[in-house]
Amino acid sequence: MKLLIKLLLLAQVCFCTTMYAQTATPLPAIGSFIKPAATRHAGVFNVYVQDAKYYLEVPDSLLKRDILAMIVINRGSAQLARDPRRRYGFAGDVVHETIFRFSKNKRGGINMEQPQFYNAPGAKSSYYATLQNKAVPIILSFTPVAQSKDALLIDVTTALNSDMPLLSLSGAKEELGLGAYQANLSSPLSVSSYKNNLVFRSTRAYGPGVAAQKPASLAPGEPQQAEEADKQVNGPTAWEVGASWYLLPAKPMRQRIADKRVGFFTRAIKDYTQDPSKADDIILTARWKLEPKTADIKKYNRGELVEPAKPIVFYVDKNTPAYLQPYFIAGVNAWQKSFEKIGFKNAITAKMEPDSTQDPEFSMDNANYSVISYKPSTTANAYGPMVVDPRSGEILSSHVAVFHNITDLLQRWYFVMCSTNDPRARKLPLSQDIMGRLAQTVITHEVGHTLGLRHDFAGSHSYDVDSVRKRSYVAKNGFGASIMDYLRFNYVAQPEDGFTADELLPQIGVYDDYAIEWGYKYLPQYKTPADEAEKLKQWVSEKRKDSRLFYFPEGDFYDPRVQSEDMGNNAMKAAALGINNLKLIMSNLESWLEKDDDENYTMLKKMHTAVASRYNEYLGHVLKNIGGHYADQALIAEGKPNYIPVSRQTHKEAMDFLNKYFFQEPSWMFPQNITNKTRFVFAGQVEGDYEVFMARIFFKFSAISRNERIQGYQAYTAAEYFDDIYNGIFLDLNDNKPISSYRRMLQRTYVNKLLSSIYNPPTYENDVAIILKQQAEKIKQACNASLKNKTDDATINHIKAITSMISQWEGNKPTI
């Protein structure tokens, strides 16, 4: 809607300057209007540059044809300050796309229309005529200046220098933090016209603006908007921009209707075919058009490997560091085996960016080419977007982005997950061959996104933790079902398991092969997309008897199977093994890093922080089991339940883990020989994180109560939960030892959340309000009784503060 408003406002301005009063004066012929000295760019549309003006020849054959405008940054703007959380702003970024058409208006002019797409009944249907009769929004209208028997010539000079989404950065204004458009500082640069593609290049200048910040993430999708305080004011900016106008095929690719049990990116389109009286959204799968050549269809049907008519080709940015280039290519080519399993050889490949002698048509702003560009950014990020035909879901091209500081992130991950098993990881910075292999896994993951695959965060859960510690098992199955999980590396493997370095890295898994088969198997035997969808639905139901093929969207907050960065089907067992490795790292951190570190202990500090961060990840994996439930998307097709509470046994296992690894102080993480150098200590640096995590534990009672209501006597109850927390963090009231600052923090946080929550009893189920009150009284009594055993001032003052807090609540408590 924002785009449409922009276009309509712009149309009002340009309409006045380009619309004309129809006269009887005949238009000159294009051949006589265009002078011999003019520059001619011949292609899908002929473009002429004459007397500092730009003329576009619009053939009758291309009227009402859909054209996709793809806006690419060819040169980013120099900026005094740039927030590293911002994704876009570099050469090779596709920042906006939209679709338009040329048409003739009733006065003989040329309109640029904003089409809307839908599936409709056949042309003979009366309802089809109604749909076709709807008014189409007009973007711009042009007065022809010359004509031929089958084309009109229009002057597009004014439009080229305007701030319209089809040609400029206005469609990404908020993302890039652009201010007011400065037309006097903007100008066209060049034009290239190809057989199905026209590229206008220009400089675009903007005044100071405010960028809407978004947190950096390896996950593509919809990140949260930052608070107003996080927005950054940018100074004036100048950019070089390419606007690729790509002629979409007259006949769209056959649609493949999405199945939510298989994780693909999708596009919605209005569908009137089932019931013309109303519009329902039909969800289309985003995928490349991968089909055999006509001459090879019989071979394909016989099961022979054939090359597709149009393979998927990625070009690696020449600015990519030389040592990474072969690994980027290998990361793309890793998908070839998946396509071979469905009959296509050389279906996807990668090459280095060609020079002008090798391919004069290549450019990053040419929509015919897919690229992997390397960004000179401090952001530790990578992403794999797609340009999609909204009529069919066909992926037309992709611009994978790799930010420079991804190498720093990979190094930290590899050290904290693999240095106990790979001695080479103990020498930092990592060698180029190690870093290349790590980067290769990132490229394979991001290219998976460009093939249409969403994250499969359930990909690791179907693998038993004990199994992924066995080399023979991993050699055959990998240690996760999908490279589209955030699988990272095999952190549960222990030194005694004997893994080689290569065996610690993720690979394309059984789920990925299954998803590629579902999305790309050539199925011409079905007459309609609906027929095909019905057969594929049955196929998916049969295939999903293999638990490794379970898929659930990444945004689920309750299903413990759906987690990023985790490993195996038991978060408690996996986290305990991961912490074993972290403890081993901490006991050797100084000796492993000191020989290669600087006088400021830079690497020691960085890796100490990385260990603490990884420890937090493991705690989070366990916490998701508490109050969790298992869901599925196969309610009709397979008749599976969509709500199964996590068992009482798993809850008890999770609470035992938290008691051992969180309620008890992780002093192993802060040995004095390390903290003397890193100054990374509990107080003031990680205390806040642990307070937040303790609060997250406390508030799980709501989900536990809901499960208790559903599951009845078999459930892990809220009363049991609060008792387990109490026994985990308050038992040191019973002895005469001082209570550490860590334990005091846990107790203080718990009591704060307890008392503030008692004030909201109507929102709670299963007598939770009463249980909270009983907990407060239990803690007060235990604190009062413990004062006779404690002798140190810090502990005594802490206990008195807690009893005072509870007494104050008792004096002001509402009736329950």
TrEMBL record:
- Coiled coil (UniProt feature): none
Q: Which InterPro entries match?
A: DUF5117, DUF5118, EcxA_zinc-bd, MetalloPept_cat_dom_sf, Zn_MMP-like_bac
**Quick one: where's region Disordered?**
211-234
**Annotated ranges, domain DUF5117:** 92-293
The UniProt keyword set, sorted, is: Signal
What domain of life is recorded for the organism? Bacteria
Q: Which Pfam families match?
A: DUF4953, DUF5117, DUF5118
Outline the extent of the DUF5118 domain. Answer: 28-69
Q: Where is the EcxA zinc-binding domain?
A: 429-735
Signal peptide start and end residues: 1-21
Q: What is the designated name of this protein?
A: DUF5117 domain-containing protein
Top-level taxonomy: Bacteria, Pseudomonadati, Bacteroidota, Sphingobacteriia, Sphingobacteriales
